[in-house]
Amino acid sequence: MLIAHWATFLPLDSAFANAALFPQIPSVMSFTSTGTTDTFILDGNTRIIVDSEFGREGSPSAYDFAKTFHQDLLAVTSLVGLPSVELIRPGGPPVGKSSIHVVVDPTSMNFTLYNGKSTNEGYNLVIREDTIRIEARAPIGVWRGMTTLVQQAALAVAAGKKLVSLPLGQVSDAPGWEIRGFMLDAGRHWFDTKFLADLCAYASFFKINEMHLHASDNLWDPVWLYGDGNDNWKKLYAAFRFEPRSGSSLKGLVTRKNESWTRGDFLNMQESCAARGVTIVPEIDTPGHSLVITQWKPQLMELGTPDHLNLSHPETIPTIKAIWDEFLPWFTSLEVSIGADEYDANLANDYIAFVNEMSVFIQKQSGKSVRIWGTNEPSNTSSISTNITIQHWDFPGDDIPVQLMAKGYSIVNSEQAFLYLDGKASDGGQFPQELNQDLMWGGAPDGKGWSPNIFTTNDPSNNTGIDNPLLRGSIMALWNDWGNNATTALEIYYQLARSLAVFGEKTWAGSDARASGLTRGQFDSVYPLLNAAAPGQNLNRIVKPEHGNIVYSYQTVQNGFRTGVESVGPPYTLTFSVQVASLGPDTGVLFSGIDSKLHVSSLTFEATGQLYSLNYTLPNYLSTKVEIHATREYTYAIINDDVSSKRYWTTVMDVWGEYMQLGNMSFAAPAQVIGGEGFIGSIKDVSLVLGS
């Protein structure tokens, strides 16, 4: 028998190694090869069969996951005729040749995390010449095994193999840590639920299992918040994303109706994420970061600090309980976050009492446990309950994680030095646009790279072992300090895409825990292929050109013409000639798609609910040639072939009320409809070409 270690894998463009699988993200714990040259061939006749004894149990069940798996295999391989998923009873007829047999058995195996605790996410993948058997103790385990198979199929296709074949042997795999998540700041930036569901699908492909939604917050502008004698705090952007029911006592909390989630939309998104093994962990942040509540009920404000709640006011805690009482029934997660960060240190006792009271309340109302962000709590008389998980983020600004664990606290590592991202205008480059690859692969004190047990780069005594029973895992974070206009939703995805993949590797396998872990070179080779193949979403907005690199080309079109192409991701070049017969403040749309619109007025792009003007006025009744070039970093126009004068679409961001910063904008091509929405004139010589 051979044990195939990932460090010995051949490059994807070399011959297929009979004794090994392709390297993938995250790497698996072990693959034991039979040592033969025989393979399992995946083709259009392969059956997917779920053992019925436990196959329908759970939500999602193994049968539910298998149906998603079926669709994913079709997506990454283009197989024709792959049969629908079947249920068979134990002891029934043999499953037959060329089949994938899915078995859940709660009693037959036990997989453990690095700390020795059991996990339901482990699985075995037994590959024989005629059959692949995916077996686990719970549905989520077989889903992780299915993801491994989908990645192998995608990589086989990317390597140009005529047949999707897998070497014979057995994969045994389980994650190192329980929590492997990412946080998205949806309080300062609006995201619709379709985009969030797509993010779940993408993250799931790298075996990430949580999306932490920071769903309430405000922009931070000290002058507006704390300036003497002004009421600017009442106008500062603040948002609460969950929309109360009709007739609710919370009427008035949500003033941005077009930037809130209805219960139906949220439940659909939550279910879509769960269908791919990702749990939504919601956060409503109090008693700091609470401007949206004090704008609604100013009497609850801490005097002189509008974004803080006055915990001693008799209405404050009942109001917060009422908010949770309304929305707890929405959430299927076993845990929620109450935020509880960056509150006044001189009110530590009030703060601690509030956190403990909310933990007891939420547990009593819903059975859910509570998480909070790490924070400074200088009290000699009281302490946070050890039933509460602390999400560390600021070393050493909040309590030192190893000291907290020594006191019995469970910890989630979100240390900002490794795991924080921010919008594109990150103040002075404080946080990178994607996770720092040098830190992730070699930034630990021993030079072996980051993993969830690493909290600092320069002091090993402040880190812990991978087997610490109180280290639950890690959550990376993407903040939106600069607000709605700083980035489009797709620009947020561009920041997350590679980061989620490397984070998936480091939180599943670690950096030095397994000989089977990926090297940086292997990751760099395989990531672009898996990024392009990730099923269940199309956040890259990939399209198949009509021929060559031309998405479409039309000499003439009727106003309102639909192309059949919803959107095209950068890089692209969109060229057209336009003659407007009417100019005014609202003179229609030149191009529109699911991600963006290009308005006639000032050649203004609209994306994620925001407007970005080029400040160029098209001449009335004259034909103007426009060439739009886009990459993931910028979008610019060339007017009438004047290449010496590129006009960039930009945004102006208020950086913490201290200065204004200019940033370039990247837009997906609004490719679905040409003309319309009140446009009067003609558009011709349209071409949309991949590449900028």
UniProtKB/TrEMBL annotation:
Keyword Hydrolase in record: yes
Question: Which keywords fit this entry according to its UniProt record?
Answer: Hydrolase
Q: Which domain of life is it from?
A: Eukaryota
Name of the protein? Glycoside hydrolase
